[in-house]
What we know:
Largest sheet: 8 strands, mixed
Strand content: 15-25%
Helix content: 25-40%
Structural class: alpha/beta
Low-confidence stretches: 1-18
Number of strands: 8
Distance between the termini: 28 Å
Amino acid sequence: MARAPRLAAGRARALGLPTRGTTNPNRLRRVDRWVVSAHRDLLRGSPLVVDLGYGSSPVTTVEMAARLRAVCPEVRVLGLELDTERVEAGKAVADPPWLEFRRGGFELAGARPVLLRAFNVLRQYTEEQALEAWTTMLGRLAPGGVLVEGTCDEIGRRCSWVSLTAEGPRTFTLSCLPADLDTPGDLAERLPKALIHRNVPGERVHALLSELDACWATAAPFAPFGPRARWVEAVRLLSARWPVLDDRKRWRLGEVTVPWDSVAP
């Protein structure tokens, strides 16, 4: 029997099938907006931020740099890719030292960022390999650093992510365009690797999505006011039963954040 590939000590090895690497403008706007709100304290001075696995185009890294620079003009952003052609495409739009591109994987090419975004990079790995990748990436962060790892659809309307520190996972966020959903349970197809196979009865993330679906159904009288109003009411109902961490301002953006412990496998 063939042995499953694993992360090599001290560096990253390409695992399993390569990602499609699809990249669309504004695909990661939701997570960038959340990062600016939730981790603004990290964006002080001249912080280093890494975008890992930006895909076939550097556009989302360029957009991330612009969004972070709006609150921290001295932020330095480094885009990393394993594919050398993608690295060269990034270098063509680089603006050193503020925006640079290099070849690298989970070892972060030796960088020590205060913030690391890794989106749509772990779906081709097994759950065990994804958890090992978490450990590798967290070990490369600067002290007090944060990893935001997650998944989204091709145009960024359905997303979820986990925020982690050296102590492990801290929060879990669902983010969507409510008008794009039949029910919140549609977000299950975009759960991060650590949770996507856990959306079954008896698991906490399944309970969360089921509860959110029930709240969405109860909030049906708000449908005439639009999908956003219905989402806000559904999350308000959820907050009476689950430890929701954010407020109406975030809910209106199509978000809801809970402690990781409430959905952990």
